[in-house]
Amino acid sequence: MFSILQYPFIQNAFLAGSVVAIVGGFVGYFLVTRGLTFAGHALSHIGFAGAAAALLIGIDPIFGMLVFTVVAGAGIGVFGKELREEDINIGIVMTLMLGLGALFISLYNGYAEQAYSILFGTILGISHTDVLVTLIFGIATIAVLAAIFRPLLFSSIDPEVAEARGVPVRALGIIFLILVAIAVSMSVEVVGVLLIFTLLVGPAATATRLVHFPLGAVAASIALALAYTWLGIFLAATGTWPVTFYIATISFAVYLPVRLLTIRS
Amino acid sequence: MDNNNTVISLDGVTVELGGRAIFNAVSFFVEKGEFVAILGPNGAGKTTLFKLLLGLLKPTKGEIRVLGAVPHRGDGNIGYAPQHRVLETDLALRARDVVGFGLDGNKWGIGFGSAKRDAMIDAVLKEVDAYQFANAAIGHLSGGEQQRLLIAQALITNPQILLLDEPLSNLDISHAQEIISLLTEISKHRGVTIMLVSHDINPLLPAANRVLYMAHGHSAMGAPDEIITSATLSKLYDTKVEVIRSGGHVFVVGAEI
Known about the structure:
The structure holds two protein chains of two kinds. By secondary structure, chain A is mostly helical. Helix content of chain A is about 80%, strand content about 0%. Chain A is built from 13 helices and no strands. In chain A, α2 (about 35-55) crosses α3 (about 60-80) and α12 runs antiparallel to α13 (about 245-260). The radius of gyration of chain A is 18 Å and the shape is globular. Chain A starts with 7 loop residues before the first helix and ends with a helix. By secondary structure, chain B is α/β, with parallel strands linked by helices. Chain B folds into two domains: about 1-75 and about 160-255, 3-Layer(aba) Sandwich (Rossmann fold); about 85-155, no CATH class. Chain B has a six-stranded mixed beta sheet with strand order 5-6-7-3-8-9, with helices on both faces. A three-stranded antiparallel beta sheet of chain B has the order 2-1-4, with helices on one face. A two-stranded antiparallel ribbon of chain B has the order 10-11. In chain B, α2 (about 95-105) packs across α3 (about 115-125) and α2 packs parallel to α4 (about 145-155). The model of chain B has no long low-confidence stretch (mean pLDDT about 90).
């Protein structure tokens, strides 16, 4: 049963999937805490245009995604004064980007498979180079997020007091959205553009309902993301259905009872 | 007027925001250990005053001194609790986490805590009578309980000045009185200077040494009995205002306080 682990493509999938899960669980905690889950969702769709553009000019889609999402993330951070009220603006930019993505894909005369894998993920077909890229960006993201952990949390929950205490609230908000952009670009390899919530929001939303203090919630979020990813890859490798289906279903199946059992006043 | 006991002084401070004068040559000083109630209509610059004292805003004209220096951001000598908003119920935070932000929320890194840190948080939670719900999720706490936490958060750096923006809003009268007697106790015990913005002077009458009344860009400061009078408020509002005293309560008629 565990003999599948000897295949290099499975090893690559587990390695990249684990890095993405840790980053997704960690970043996702702040997305949920800051009420920015929609921005995360929008960034993934904006990334679709970037990935499609990259295909068109013949480079690895992840770099196209990174460029588009990081620019968009920084833009939302700089121009979005009250991000929670910027949803309409973000939504309109997001749909424009989806439209552009559709255009690039139609101009690109390659395999439709490429578009499919951007939308739904390609973890089982991930190359060694992709694993390396994921590893580098993953470690960098985790390192930066760990470095800004306390002031980011403080400014997420109490921006006024944080500012008075000398925390660079605005700059941290921009840095965080850039980290979200990177996390989104990485997660696309595993779950695709359309299912980003599964890894970025699902585990964190479940974790914050189960554990009531920050470090515990972060740990639980990462643990859940890892469990969903490992189980999803394992089931897909031994079965016939796609990884994305398994991860999304597990994420939902865990969130639902937790949500129902922890209804808060 | 200046002496060694002065902790806050404003001298001819004018603040213009977007071409509108929020403050017009405001001058006053506050001495160590005073409990100052700040009153006035919305938009009179009460929150702006706090921003000036915290160094988040620079005056267009005039001079401000806080503890002998120009106000600067991140001053641990000032504890600040902004206008109270009910903290969201979905946040994965305990009461002690909120207080902990006051201690080291501005420091870099993850911060895994320590026994010493826990002891400091426990001590300040006990001081504000909130220790019994130290580990409760904040979403489950009442408005009065959350207010105690915000005061604890502001106190944990042992500040010399506490700036509290409307800590009594959302509280019923008995909870408001509890918070005020708690603050009076803290002020006496720690010798901390308190400036508190309120919409209602009545619960503050037993506690406040002085009142800072702000309206239409001007201010008047003095003992509650001197300031909350028909003559002073009519002059400040530039319209007829009547102050009625009845059964130990004060009512201001003819103006929005």
